[in-house]
Amino acid sequence: MAMGGDYGAFMEKFELLPPQSQQHLPLHGLTFAIKDIFDISGRVTGFGNPDWARTHAPAGATSPVVLATLAAGAISIGKTVMDEMAYSINGENAHYGTPTNPCAPDRVPGGSSSGSAVAVGAKLVDFALGTDTGGSVRVPAAYCGIFGLRPSHGLVSTENVIPMSQMFDTVGWFARDLSTLSRVSNVLLPLPADNTIKRPTHFKIPKDCFEILGSLNDQTYQILNASVAKRFGNDAVDNRNLGEFVSSNVPTVGKFISDFSRSEAPSVPALSVISYVMRCLQRSEFKANHAEWVNTVRPNLGPGIRERVYEAIASEDGPMEDFHVLKTEFKLALSALIKDDGILVIPTVPGSPPKLRMEAVALENFRARAFSLLSIAGLSGFCQLSIPLGVRGGVPVSVSLVACHGADRFLLSVAQELYETLKEETKKGWSSPDSSL
Description:
alpha/beta; Amidase signature (AS) enzymes; 2 domains; 11-stranded mixed β-sheet; 13 helices; 11 strands; 15% strand; disordered C terminus
């Protein structure tokens, strides 16, 4: 755990100023931090590992996302710590230290965009840039009690961002409030051809996804149902199980589901298949991107990361045709379920942030359950917003809204309309004196 004035969030502090500073610019007056995966001209992009930094030259160009943010009037104050090679959702870094979770200092901050989330949560910056392949914006947002947006895949440029797995890589961002998040989104999200924002007609709130939460399941589930019903009417709520829907509407799931039907931990077997397929595809692309460098340099990698990286590089690809077919089937099925006027509501993560230095087996079990939720937006390419509910029992609690691919502005509009009601219902539902929003 890193401590100090910056919570161990920063790799390097420096100022990047906007090309012009005028009050009419949309991000004028805001400060931001940049995950050390984005290129900045003249600086080495470290990718979370000293050996990577040592063996790579300074970047020759700056990420278009960073340039757009600066052009909109924001000031960057530096680059943030991340998990090595973006291959973890814990937020622990054996070389640079683990940024301190401002919401729960005895627990991990979440990764791989750990420093960016901590910088926002600790009020060191107004917003921060991160990346999300398998959950690297959504998880640290949930663990640090802030907002985190994973946009629709392919909607925001990943140019001059080190790839992890291009099939799933996205650029996302964090903020403490929806107003700031929306200001950044208005700069970085492309304008749709039709600027009309629809009103949502239905919310899928699948009970089986919330059963993964354990003790918080019933209360969080009830708060969400009450909030949606109060704001949009009882007819807007649909509680059908997502696992059953996926099993019935994604035929290729049947080829793999028997391997995931005997889990003792709370799980949804069909979503475990979705997670497995996504991780296999991600691993294959990671291997193609980075195996040569790893095999040549033999970098010093921290615990957990080392095993994961070398397992990926040594792995066989498996039935790739089936994986790609399932990915297409899943996106089509989920599109048919949510449509362009619906929202899927799920937990962001399967429980409280793990404690620092948690035992490896328990951590891997938590990770597996997390990916059964994270892979829903991951494999489909849909947009997802993690929303903080507050702090309960000393740990942050969050939920997520998911919308169809390209419906990012619709997603933000729904969040803005629902959030005040969500806060009201959460205060009613939480009676403990340490609850806060």
